[in-house]
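Practice set, problem 2.
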Amino acid sequence: MLKKVSLVLQGATRVSDIACRHGGEEFAILVPGVGLEAIQVRAEQLRAEVIDIHVRHKGETLGCVTISCGVAVFPDHGADLVELMLAADLALYRAKGEGRNRVVVAEVTTASQPETAAQKAVS
């Protein structure tokens, strides 16, 4: 199953993207230079492609495969890779908690928002 999902992810990435297994049954795709709206569309496309995967094991077709996606973009959801991965991970767990088989965008945090001129003046 993991091989089939990884093939879908591999087919959905550009040369500049990085798709990798993040652990267990989790994958990450780093997509530089793409905005939130485009990433959401891409994640929904991946989710739809994975549902179409049919795997046979020991002569039997395994059940339907679904994925949940947590999406985070720079700089809205994090100032560096660590913050972005954490934001995406939290969004992923929210997706799983909301019933799985969905795409959830990370919440914008004050830590990831650029400081305004007024905030700098007060500091």
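Problem 2, part (b): a different protein.
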Amino acid sequence: MAEKKTPGAIVPAKVKDVVVAAVGELSAADAMAALTKLVEAVKVHEVESTKREKLRVYEKTEVARINASKEVLKDYFDRVFAERDATYTKFFESLDVALQSGDVAAMQTVVGGIVEVARQSPLANLGNLAELRAALDDPNTVFEF
């Protein structure tokens, strides 16, 4: 492509000519300093790119772990509450029979069972929830399911 020359304009032939025109003659030390800065910039870019990639991989891994844990917990709750549903159904059927027969002792036993099941959390036997909260807050904690 031919350069269009404007009357009175200086059109340099090389980038070096632009730099020299702006700052004066370049020395070998200036060139070496520029090369050093270029190499350092490339190294920093490489290191930062590697860090960003590691963070992307870490994020994907953690999201996958969270989703896997979520599915396990969801399945657990589905089974536990289905179990509880069956238990409560039996308790209320038994309560109906006790009410129909007027059996006060049976009514007390059934209601006691309902209250006891209602008091127990599905996670109550797994440990202290405060310890679980602390473990969740600790980034070094590894959960295995």
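Answer key, part (b): The chain has one domain: 27-137. The CA atoms of residues 78 and 100 lie 33 Å apart.
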